[in-house]
Structures are given as structure tokens and as C-alpha cells.
Amino acid sequence: MFKLSATISKDVRVLLRDRIGLIFMFGMPILLVLIVTSIQNSTFELVGKNKVSLLICNRDTGVASREFIRAVDTIGFFQLMPVPAGAAGSSLSGAAAADLIHERIRHKDAFLGLVIPADFSARIAARAKSVTGKVQASFGLDSTVNAPDSQDSLPVSLYYDPVLQESFRRSAEGALYSALQLVESKQILRTLYYALNEKALPDSLERQLLNNRTRIDELPAVSRKDNRDLPNATQHNIPSWTIFAMFFVVLSLGSGIVREKRNGSFIRLKTLPTSYAVAIFSKQLTYLVVTLSQAVVIFALGAWLFPVIGLPPLHFPGDWAALIVVTLLCGWCAVSYAICIGVFAQTEEQANGFGAVSIVILAAVGGLMVPSFAMPGSFHLAMSLSPLHWCLEAYYGLFLEGGSLKDVWANILSLFLIIAALQGLSFWGLKRKNLI
User: Fold this and answer.
1) Which residue spans of the chain are classified as CATH 3.40.1710?
2) Global model pTM greater than 0.90
3) Residue 161: its H or E element
4) Cβ atoms within 10 A of the Cβ of 304, count?
5) Alpha helix (H) ranges present in 23-75?
6) Check: CATH 3.30.1490 for 50-210?
7) Cβ–Cβ under 8 Å, residues 238 and 302
């Protein structure tokens, strides 16, 4: 016991002298959590609290275009910014309106711009008459509406800043299509009702027909009712960057093992009445405490600091025993990886360089930077070999899905296998180098 306590005391003193390593292990993850979570939280709340600026140049003077603009505003996704279509008694041409929208977007006044053509209301009315005539014909009635078939699409032009991602543009297009469909439905109902009754459609009946929609109740598939507000940026980022911080102990532990190999500590241990197993166990225990401290610090930030700075607070899983077990295994896996790097690296530069780069690659492949469901099929094998992936899946099973220990046992088993492989590889490397 005295040998172990003395070795732990030595490892702690060495760790405290490595101030750069401490900054990497504690300071960098804290900054990453604060910055990345703040940025992603704005993205998560984009459609809820913030609105996307949308330039609208309305060249039409009819009723349908005004109803379309009101429908777009009602969606709540956009902040409308009207662009004058021309002075009184005149109107911009289509090319001039497009140039004006282009210029405003280039000056970053908005990311999206919409040009409503001059014949918008007339085209809507023509389409409504065409549909009404077809409906009457299908019922075997004499059509009182004689209108030619309208074109398949309405010439509404949406301009966007090229920096916008395709998924975001598709969301904006979907919102505009919903507003456009509402305006077309209104016009078709009015025209059909007038054709059948020769009087205008009452406003109350129109609202009743158009608002008769089935409601979609969105609920996350979690085990606990207090997670109904998930997911949010905090629940996603706190676990992922905690794992990232844990694995960055490779910068301190890996280089420390290389130093001991180069200064002959391994050889001197052979001449003393002790074994290297004690030294290895001491390093694992010391740095396991470091990884647990990292988890405590980052979890505390999410629980207490985030609400103060306006970010969603971290909700802990109900099964605290599972959280402790998963955190211990993640920390042990990170320590095992760092020891393996230190055993096979020849210089401190190799340990630091390869260790840092490999952690970033494993994090990217493991789903910490890009969601695992978005990975191409060719990356699935590499993802399953990344220890960070199984750490993240175990944490997500607790934080996002509200699971317990039995729900993440498959991830825990995978971590055990990875830890055993890393420990065995490290032992083989030490024996191969005649260091033990």
C-alpha cells in the first residue's frame, strides 16, 4: 500500500507541474462547451424564437398576393422585409426586381428574397377556375366556368444567399409552399362555392373548411416525462465535449510515459523491490480521478452556469448509478488509450501530435462532431471501432433517452471490450520493448 501511495503522490506532483496539459484538459473543454453550445443553441431555437429575414418584392396589386404575404407572416418562420416594387403608378420589371433583391442579399440585408410577379392574382384565379370546371364536369354538372388549363406552376421566385445550407433552404421552401397552398385552396373554395350557389362563400364557413386540420403532437421518445423539452443544445453538447476532454488526457499522460521511458525510469524500476504494475495502476488511478474531475466540472457548468448566461440547463438522468458507471468507464477508456499511445510513441512530440490528431479523427468518426445518422454507410465500420462513439452512445442513452443502466448495457459491454484491447495492447508493447 505504501508503494502505491508513494507512486500516486509522485504522479500527482508530475501532473500539477504540467500546467499546459492541465489547460488542455480543463480550460479547452470549458471554452468548447460554452462557445459551441451557445452557437448551436441559436440554431436549435431558430424557428422557435428567432426569425429568418425575408425580403418580399410584391409586383402584383391583386388580393391573392396580399393574402399570400399574410399567410407567410402567419407561419412565424420569417421576418418580412417589404421591398418597394416601384413608385405610384409604375412597377418594377421582373429583371429589375430580381436585381434589387440580389443587391440587398449581397449587402447581407437578408438571406432570402421573394419576388411575387405582376400576374400572381390573375394566375391564382385562372387556376381556381380551371379546377372548378374540372370538378363540375366530374360531377356530371354543366360547368358555368369556362377557363383554360392553367400552367402547372406559379412563377414565384425565391432567391437565397449561397452560404445557406440546403437543408435550411428546403425548410424555407416548405414554409412558403404551405402559404402558397393555403392561398390557392382559398381561391378554389370561393370559386367552387360561387359556381354551385351563385353567391360568395361566407367567411365563417371558409375558416371552418380551411382550419379543419389534424394536429401533430411532437413528443420525444424518452423514458421520463421531464424530458419533454428535449433535445436541446445543452443535452447534446455536454456529454460529447465531456468525452472529448477526457480523451485529451493523452497530451499529459502519453507524453509522461514517453519521458519515463527515455529517462530510464522503467529500467530503474526493475532494480527496485517493486513492479511496473504498481506504476501503471498508479497512473491509471490518478488520471481516472482527473477524468472524473473533468466530468464534474463540465456537468456543473451545464447545470448551474448555463441558465445564468441564457442557455438551457443540463437535465441529469434519473439513474445516477448508471451515470457514475458510464462516466467511470469513459474515463478508464480514455486513460487506457493515453497509456497505449505513450507505450508505442518514441518521442513526446509523437505522443502529443498523434494523440491530439487521433482524438479529433476518432471524435469526428464517432459522431461527436457530425451526427452518427448522417454518416455515410462506408463510415459505419470505422464508427463502431471508435471508443468515443460508444462513450457518446452510452451518455445519449442516459441524457437524451432517459434510459437506465439496463438500457445502455450494450454500449458498456463494447467499452469493456475496447478497454481490454487497449490494456492488452499496452502490456504487449511493454513486453516487446523489454520494459517490464
Assistant:
1) 50-210
2) no
3) none
4) 11
5) 28-44, 63-75
6) no
7) yes
CA distances from 73 to 52, 68, 155, 398 (A): 11, 9, 20, 39
Give the pLDDT confidence score for residue 89 in this predicted structure: 41
Q: What is the model's pLDDT at position 227?
A: 47
Cα separation, 270 vs 171, in Å, equals 66
Distance of alpha carbon 120 from alpha carbon 273, whole angstroms: 92
**Could you tell me the end-to-end alpha-carbon distance of the chain, in angstroms, rounded to an integer?**
20
Q: Compute the distance between CA of residue 317 and CA of residue 122 in angstroms, rounded to an integer.
A: 58
Burial 225-255 (b: 16+ CB within 10 A, else e): eebeebebbbbbbbbbbbbbbbbbbbbbbbb
DSSP letters spanning 417-428: HHHHHHHHHHHH
Specify the length of the chain in residues: 436
If we measure between CA atoms, which residue out of 287, 299, 293, 288 comes closest to residue 241?
299
Q: Residue 52's Cα: distance from chain center in Å?
A: 19
- Averages of pLDDT over runs of 10 residues in the chain (436 residues) are 68 73 77 80 58 86 89 86 66 80 86 88 84 74 55 71 77 87 84 77 71 65 52 83 90 83 65 65 88 93 90 88 94 94 88 88 83 70 88 90 87 94 90 74
- Look up residue 7 and give its DSSP letter: H
